[in-house]
Design a protein that fits this description.
Length: 621
C-alpha cells in the first residue's frame, strides 16, 4: 500500500493529513502582503468565510479558532511565536479583525473565563491596503528616470524628495510657422513637453510616482535639437483635498521630441492627475525603536477609587473566578479596562454589589459559593455510584463538576427535580398520618458552627488533653517508687526461712548440678509440633453457592410483623438495619407499602381489605 498519493497533481501523505490539509495561496497575494505566513492566514480565513464556517455575529462572520488549533489543523510547520507575530502584523495593517466574542456567541454568563479570540477578514481593509501598495510601487519605478532627467538638464539643485502630489501636462506645440522658419518647414517636428511638478515637504527620498508609462533611458539621453527653446508653463489644477499644501519646486522639465511628418497648430493639454502616495516605511535601527504610548481609557475617576476596586478584586477573584494567581488575573483585568475593554467585575463594583454578581449562576447563594444542599446532593450521588470513594474524594469530584458550567447545569436540573419530588413525598406521608416522614440525608441541614463556638470547643479539647497528660505523668513516678520499695525490702518470711548455710541457686562452689534450661525451638519446629502443615486455607468440600444458602437458612428474623402493631413497624423502619430485616416480611404481607424516591420502604399502612375486616370485627363486638 502506497503512503504517498500521487494520482492527482497534488501529493498527499495519507498518514499525516490534517483537518485542512490543502492550502493554496496565490503568488500575487504573497507579493502584495509581503509575507508568506500572513498570506496563508488571509487565504485560510477567506476559505472559511466562503464556505460559511464559524458564526455570524453583528453582521460579520467570525472564526472561533485558538492558536493551538491554527497550528495543528491549518498552519503546519510554524511556531506559536511566528503565528502570533503574523496575526499582529495583519491587525496593524487593517486586514484582520480580532475580538473577544465568546459571550455573544454562546449567550451565557461565563465570558470572562474564556478569552479565546474570534477572527474575521476585513475585505475593505485588504482592498485599501492593495491600493496603497499599487501607488507606492508606481512611485518607486519612476524615481531613477527623474533623477537622470534632472542631471541631463543641468539642474544640480534637484532635491531628493518623496512626493505627495505629481502632475503631468503634455502639450504638442508648434514651435514655428512654416512661413517664418525654414527649419520648421523642413523638419516640421513636434515636441511633446512633459512637466512634472513635485509638491512635497519630505526631503529624504527621491521617488516621484507616475501613472503614465516612461520611455526607456536611452531615448531620454539622446541629443536634443531643441534644448534651447523656451519651455512652456503648465497650468496647475487645484487639489480636491484642502489639507494638501502645494509648493512649487525647481524641477527641470523633460522634453521629448517626437518626429512626425505632419505639423499642426492645435495644442492638446491633458489634465493634471493628483496622486497621493504613502510614504515608504523606514527600518528603524535595532535598539532605537521608540516605545509606543499606552492607551489609557481607565474608567476610574481617581487613584482612591482604583485602589478600592483593586482590593475588592483581589479579595473576590480567588472565590469567584477560582484563580490560582489572584494578582495575575487582577492585573489582566486592569489592563483590559485601561485599554477601553469593558468588564463585568467593574460594572458590579460601580453598582455597589459584590464582584461577580452579574455572572453568578443559579446554583450559587453568592458569587463563588454554591448551595450547601446541592453540594451534599452531589456528594451522596457520587458515593452511591462508586462505593470505593471516600468522602474527601467525592468532594473533590463535586468541586470539579462545579467548575464545569455545562455539567453543573445538568446536575442542577436533576437536583431541583429531586427537591420537588421529596417535598411531594413528605406531604403525602403526612397526609397518611406519618408523624416523622423520612427524608434523604442530603436534604438535612448541617449547621456550620461559628468561629466562637469552634474556639470554645477547641479549648475544651485542649483542657481534656492536658488533664490526661497530667494524670499519665503522675502515674509514672508512683510506679517507679513502688518498684524501688519492692526490690529494696524483701518479705520477712523469706529471710527467716532461709538458713545461713543454704547456698544460693547460683552459687558456683556447690556440687549440685545446675538446672537444665528449656531448649529453644525454631519457628519451623514449633509449627511442626502443633501439626500445622501450611498457611493456605484448605479448599471447602462444597460449593460457594451452597455455603451462602446455608448461611441464609441459619439467619433467623429477629422480628415478626405478625406480632407487631403498625406504629411499631413504622418506628422500626426508621432504622436502616431493622428496615433490612423487615423488608422481606413486608413485601409478602398484606400491608400497603410507602416507598421513597429510591424505592426503599419508609412506612406501611393498612390496606382497604384489612380496614373493612377490622370494621366488621368491631361491629360484631
Amino acid at each position: 500500500m502506497s503512503i504517498i498519493s500521487a494520482n492527482s497533481n497534488i501529493l498527499k501523505v495519507e498518514a499525516l493529513q490534517t483537518k485542512f490539509d490543502l492550502s493554496i495561496v496565490s503568488n500575487s497575494l504573497v507579493n502584495l502582503i509581503g509575507n508568506y505566513l500572513e498570506a496563508r492566514i488571509v487565504q485560510q480565513l477567506h476559505y472559511w468565510t466562503v464556505h460559511e464556517y464559524g458564526k455570524v455575529i453583528n453582521g460579520l462572520r467570525w472564526i472561533y479558532k485558538p492558536v493551538r488549533e491554527w497550528l495543528s489543523e491549518a498552519l503546519i510547520g510554524f511556531t506559536n511565536w511566528q503565528l502570533r507575530t503574523a496575526i499582529a502584523n495583519l491587525i496593524e495593517k487593517g486586514i484582520l479583525l480580532r475580538e473577544h466574542l465568546f459571550k455573544e456567541h454562546h449567550g451565557n454568563n461565563f465570558a470572562p473565563k474564556n478569552r479565546t479570540y474570534y477572527y474575521s477578514l476585513n475585505y475593505k481593509g485588504l482592498e485599501k491596503f492593495a491600493q496603497k501598495q499599487k501607488i507606492a510601487e508606481a512611485g518607486l519605478a519612476l524615481a531613477p528616470v527623474l533623477k537622470d532627467t534632472a542631471a541631463h538638464n543641468g539642474d544640480a539643485s534637484f532635491p531628493a524628495e518623496s512626493t505627495k502630489n505629481v502632475r503631468f501636462v503634455s502639450s504638442t506645440n508648434q514651435f514655428c510657422d512654416s512661413s517664418e522658419n525654414q527649419f520648421c518647414e523642413k523638419t516640421k517636428n513636434i515636441t511633446e513637453n512633459t512637466s512634472i511638478e513635485n509638491i512635497s515637504t519630505y526631503k529624504s527620498h527621491p521617488h516621484l510616482p507616475c501613472e503614465s508609462e516612461i520611455k526607456t533611458q536611452e531615448e531620454h539621453q539622446e541629443k536634443q535639437d531643441f534644448s534651447n527653446l523656451q519651455v512652456l508653463q503648465n497650468k496647475e489644477v487645484n487639489s480636491p483635498n484642502p489639507k494638501v499644501i502645494e509648493e512649487d519646486t525647481n524641477v527641470g522639465q523633460v522634453e521629448e521630441n517626437i518626429n512626425q511628418n505632419v505639423c499642426t497648430d492645435k495644442q492638446d493639454v491633458q489634465e493634471s492627475v493628483q496622486v497621493e502616495v504613502a510614504k515608504p516605511r523606514l527600518k528603524t535601527p535595532k535598539g532605537t525603536k521608540p516605545k509606543s504610548k499606552r492607551r489609557n481609557d481607565a474608567p476610574w475617576k481617581d487613584e482612591g477609587q482604583f485602589k478600592r476596586f483593586y482590593r475588592a478584586l483581589i479579595q473576590a477573584v480567588p472565590i469567584v473566578a477560582n484563580a490560582r494567581s489572584p494578582q495575575g488575573l487582577a492585573q489582566t483585568i486592569i489592563r483590559q479596562l485601561r485599554s477601553g475593554i469593558p468588564h463585568t467585575y467593574w460594572d458590579d463594583f460601580i453598582a455597589g454589589v459584590p464582584i461577580g454578581t452579574s455572572t453568578k449562576p443559579e446554583w450559587e447563594v453568592e458569587p463563588g459559593v454554591p448551595y450547601p444542599m446541592f453540594i451534599e446532593y452531589l456528594t451522596e450521588k457520587i458515593i452511591r455510584g462508586n462505593n470505593t470513594q471516600t468522602q474527601e474524594q467525592a468532594r473533590n469530584e463535586v468541586f470539579r463538576i462545579l467548575d464545569q458550567p455545562r455539567q453543573a447545569k445538568a446536575f442542577w436540573g436533576q437536583f431541583k427535580r429531586s427537591v420537588v419530588n421529596v417535598s411531594e413525598q413528605v406531604e403525602r406521608d403526612r397526609a397518611l398520618g406519618v408523624s416523622n416522614p423520612n427524608t434523604p440525608v442530603w436534604s438535612r441541614e448541617r449547621i456550620e458552627p461559628s468561629i466562637e463556638e469552634a474556639q470554645k470547643a477547641g479549648k475544651k479539647i485542649m483542657a481534656a488533653n492536658g488533664t490526661q497528660t497530667a494524670m499519665e505523668a503522675a502515674k509514672i513516678p508512683q510506679l517507679e517508687l513502688e518498684a524501688k520499695s519492692f526490690t529494696s525490702a524483701p518479705p520477712a518470711s523469706s529471710t527467716s526461712s532461709a538458713s545461713p548455710a543454704s547456698p544460693s541457686p547460683s552459687d558456683p562452689w556447690t556440687n549440685e548440678p545446675e538446672p537444665e534450661s528449656k531448649p529453644q525451638l525454631t519457628m519451623r519446629e514449633m509449627l511442626a509440633a502443633r501439626g500445622i502443615k501450611g498457611f493456605v486455607k484448605s479448599m471447602p468440600k462444597v460449593s460457594q453457592a451452597e455455603i451462602e444458602a446455608e448461611e441464609r437458612a441459619e439467619i433467623k428474623p429477629k422480628t415478626n410483623i405478625a406480632t407487631m402493631a403498625i406504629a411499631e413497624i413504622n418506628d422500626y423502619l426508621q432504622d436502616p438495619i431493622l428496615r433490612a430485616q423487615l423488608t422481606p416480611q413486608l413485601i409478602d404481607s398484606d400491608y400497603e407499602l410507602i416507598l421513597d424516591y429510591l424505592g426503599q420502604i419508609i412506612g406501611v399502612k393498612l390496606s382497604d381489605l384489612q380496614i373493612r375486616e377490622r370494621e366488621a370485627e368491631s361491629l360484631f363486638e
